[in-house]
Amino acid sequence: MTDSLTRNIKHLLTSLVLQGVHDFVVSPGSRTTPVALLLAEMQQVRDDVRVTVDVDERSAAFFALGIAKTAHQPVVLLATSGTATGNYLPAFMEASISHIPLIALTTDRPTELQQIGAPQTVHQEHLYGEHAKAYTAIEMQDDHADVTAYIDYHVQELVGRALTQPMGPIQINLPLRKPLMPKLGEAWPEVTPQRILVGQRQAGWQDIQAIAALLRKPKAMMLLGPDEIGWQTEKIEQLAAHYQLPVLADILSNFRPSQYAVNGIDSLIAADVIDDSLIPDVVLRFGGTPVSAKVITWLREKEIPVIQVGQEHAGHDHGRHTHTTVVADPDTVISDLLAEPGVKNATFLKKWQDLTDKLMSVVTTEVANTVEYQVPTALAELPENAKLFIANSMPIRDMDNYFVPKQRLQIAANRGANGIDGTVSSAFGMAMSGQPTTLLTGDLTLFHDMNGLMLSHQAHVPMTIVVVNNQGGGIFSFLPQSEAAAYFEPMFGTPLPIVIERIARLYDAEYKLVDDLAALSDLIRKPATRLRIIEIQSNRQQNVTAHRDLTTAINEALS
Amino acid sequence: MTDSLTRNIKHLLTSLVLQGVHDFVVSPGSRTTPVALLLAEMQQVRDDVRVTVDVDERSAAFFALGIAKTAHQPVVLLATSGTATGNYLPAFMEASISHIPLIALTTDRPTELQQIGAPQTVHQEHLYGEHAKAYTAIEMQDDHADVTAYIDYHVQELVGRALTQPMGPIQINLPLRKPLMPKLGEAWPEVTPQRILVGQRQAGWQDIQAIAALLRKPKAMMLLGPDEIGWQTEKIEQLAAHYQLPVLADILSNFRPSQYAVNGIDSLIAADVIDDSLIPDVVLRFGGTPVSAKVITWLREKEIPVIQVGQEHAGHDHGRHTHTTVVADPDTVISDLLAEPGVKNATFLKKWQDLTDKLMSVVTTEVANTVEYQVPTALAELPENAKLFIANSMPIRDMDNYFVPKQRLQIAANRGANGIDGTVSSAFGMAMSGQPTTLLTGDLTLFHDMNGLMLSHQAHVPMTIVVVNNQGGGIFSFLPQSEAAAYFEPMFGTPLPIVIERIARLYDAEYKLVDDLAALSDLIRKPATRLRIIEIQSNRQQNVTAHRDLTTAINEALS
């Protein structure tokens, strides 16, 4: 008969897989020994399990986040005891807000070594506080027969909890006592899968009729924020067609391109070109917080009634303005709305389509000059099925305003807490989908997670990184502190003496420095075969001027 | 009259300085704007304030830890809202256990933006949980006159709390509302300094007499663990002389070299060469958990009575064996013990001195062959006043066994939680002392905190890094999992395809590859003038064999 350590860990790992875990991200350490070795063995005996090793736990957690948000699956992390586990906190903060089901297995020292000065021993209980949806500790070396049954039930139920709307990350702490070597090469147990059904609150019949009546008003429109649940864009397009709705489509809505999509709302508001005839009577809102800060303020200032639908984000409106909140599954609500009578009149839709077309033509005439507008143009060449990860700060804002892909792509960013940390690793997580993946980032964000580049070796996936190198933090030049001239560069601009080509050399990456749109577009059309870093140099001050000039140009052309 | 934001932040910063803060480590971000700008201004108007910018918050926190543990002063961190603040957790875990007074100023979004989907807004309250000694949130934009007085009192009192034994890190959360621009160029306020006296529990008179009587036994000895309070080594040497005590001096005790110091206790126990005549009747123990794991087990197995003295570490004995715990200030206890009658008989001391001498001569004959013994020999050449930071895993263990500097150095490591994260940054923190500083590390630990290398630019301090490159995690080869051959390399060895010379090039460092003791010693004698990376290549398997051969050689020579 096998020992309790080996048996219980096999039940733990099998239970995780039964509830839909396929990816495990491991950061090595002594205390992880039995879990890591049995995981390696499980990978040999099951073909639905994939293990990636990442030495830097902060990077590992953001990598897992990228896998989970791309595949819409739970992903497991494994860390050794001590400060290693603390490195997961930034990604847990992001996962908690953007509802990503990460599962951290934090190995720990046993009870008898706690708080008496044993090495590598820290308080790991409830380590992520409010940033984890659930916490449990499980003894893996307890011989009692009930413990194994408890693991089968409890671990599966915990994964179910992580996957219940609103989804979120959980921590499973595993105190482990020496000896830590499991028995290898023995048979794996059969574990009974639990059927976990996620209940859904639906909008009632009267609600749907009332919403449909509002959508039939002459000037109804939709606001699609970031998609975090993998919604059906085809059905959203059917809904837009059914009620002739223009759709304010966030860059992360995955709704572009579409004849119903309006992009650049932030620019349009900034340029003050939205006249009263374009103000909607009602807005139907789905998804997370939009990238555009101005759209939220605009909705409130124009006193536009907003109906917000969703399980995760319902009630989350930092404009503090939402008129009606519908806590329900968006796909169900859309089906119900499609069953109600629609409208034929496309006047309002047409007006917004015209405005978008004019905006893009003004932007296009500006493109020749400025890197920040050339990049979205070139990225539009991304081939079908390509995936795109966008860094926070300036890249996500520019892309939200000006990016229209030629075909629908899966696009992601870490927009829960909007950190610049872990971006490279999250993009590698996206690349684990096996589809060609591109990361668009600035130089500071690339630097912050440079260790993530090691994943090109550890995860064996190719990726293209487009770095807009403006030698520091570009976004601060748009903020009031740029006027505090004496202190601005050292405290905010923070230029770093990093040479991108040397980073590429360090990680054996293909490197290209490009300075024109044609060269960039050519590269973008060809997927990378290994790690490829494309650098485009920019200038923070010129960028500010270009953005301001563009706003003036839009105002003049569209007023 | 100045606005409340500017006034209150000036009072906050001045209160921190009044209680002994001189170093501020800033990671840029929008929400930090008023604090960062006023800090930059304060640096202009006061010459006792130093500000360093570090883009990576994880690195910043470990850097602050290094400064604090070297200077024995509180150090302030400043981060923007969101995941940035989460990056401090690993260093807070270490600071909490090793009693370092870090003060994190975490800027936050105001109440009206919490939990409703506002960007970059996370739960920052009590973010570090049990890993912070105190938490508070202070409104900086409240006009009420009492608020400014509250800041003067409360902030000074909080620093006092961080500095009270056992010392520890604290979090001050600062919700800030836009507009964030402070008024620059105005006069700074006078803040009344508070006098905060740290009470000390002392051992009573009977206790001291009883301990002194035990130390007069024929076979009494001392165990000095890591020094985290900056104790007076001269007084410890006087105590050893007074009672003729051999001192088991941990590498981090800062007690080597001394005629009373015994090093290599871990090797001596491993080689089974400590005969009964060397077993002490009693051990007087000061300081943190020793690097040697074996010495703790040995004390218990031999049933040696241990008297543990200290405020921070009293009661922390993971051998669960301490006989008497004295919760008192070590310096006071030593003074009292020096006032009691001592002993003249040095027989027991002489025996241990002989053993140490013999051990070192066996080690010396082995040195010619193996990198891991050559490195301590070369580092013994470090000049007076030099500082040395040692990475965890194998370097700290080898140094604990075989390192005897020619003069007393300040030596540090992160031995609270023993993480490999943040090591480069902590070493740069040590270098902020202005003394020549050397970091000894393996390649994995260097990689984990590669971003810390940016501090050579941001902090403008030189440092030497000696990298023993064994292409992966050397310590695992000593553990049982090394026998799981099929899974060992990918799960534990984790060789990374990193070329150290390319890291040096990326950070504009001087680079030397050395392969003999003489060349390494020559380099060690000359302090670095900028960042200097010295690589020595090693082999994990040969290292295991060499360690085992050495144990055999010690056993044969000393039995």
Describe how the helices and strands are arranged:
Two copies of one chain form a homodimer.
Chain A lengths: L3 H15 L4 E4 L6 H13 L4 E4 L3 H15 L3 E5 L3 H4 L2 H10 L3 E7 L25 E4 L7 H19 L6 E6 L29 H11 L4 E5 L8 H11 L3 E3 L11 E2 L2 H6 L11 E5 L6 H9 L4 E4 L14 E3 L3 H9 L8 H21 L3 H9 L7 E4 L3 H9 L7 E3 L10 H9 L5 E6 H6 L6 H4 L4 E7 L15 H9 L6 H7 L3 E5 L2 H9 L5 E7 L2 H19 L1
Parallel strand pairs in A: 1-2, 1-3, 3-4, 4-6, 5-6, 7-8, 7-10, 8-9, 10-11, 11-12, 13-14, 13-15, 15-16, 16-18, 17-18
Q: Which chains make the largest contact?
A: A-B, 92 and 92 residues
Q: Considering DSSP H and I runs of 4 or more, what fraction of the residues of chain A is helical?
A: 40-55%
Multimeric status of the protein:
homodimer
| CATH homologous superfamily (4th level) name of the largest domain in chain A | Thiamin diphosphate (ThDP)-binding fold, Pyr/PP domains
Measured distance between first and last alpha carbons of chain A: 80 Å
Q: What is the CATH class of the largest domain in chain A?
A: Alpha Beta
Q: Provide the CATH architecture of the largest domain in chain A.
A: 3-Layer(aba) Sandwich
SSE class of chain A: alpha/beta
Identify the strand order in the major beta sheet of chain A: 2-1-3-4-6-5
GO molecular function (chains A, B): 2-succinyl-5-enolpyruvyl-6-hydroxy-3-cyclohexene-1-carboxylic-acid synthase activity; magnesium ion binding; manganese ion binding; thiamine pyrophosphate binding
Pathway (chains A, B): Quinol/quinone metabolism; menaquinone biosynthesis; Quinol/quinone metabolism; 1,4-dihydroxy-2-naphthoate biosynthesis; 1,4-dihydroxy-2-naphthoate from chorismate: step 2/7
Enzyme class (chains A, B): transferase
Subunit structure (chains A, B): Homodimer.
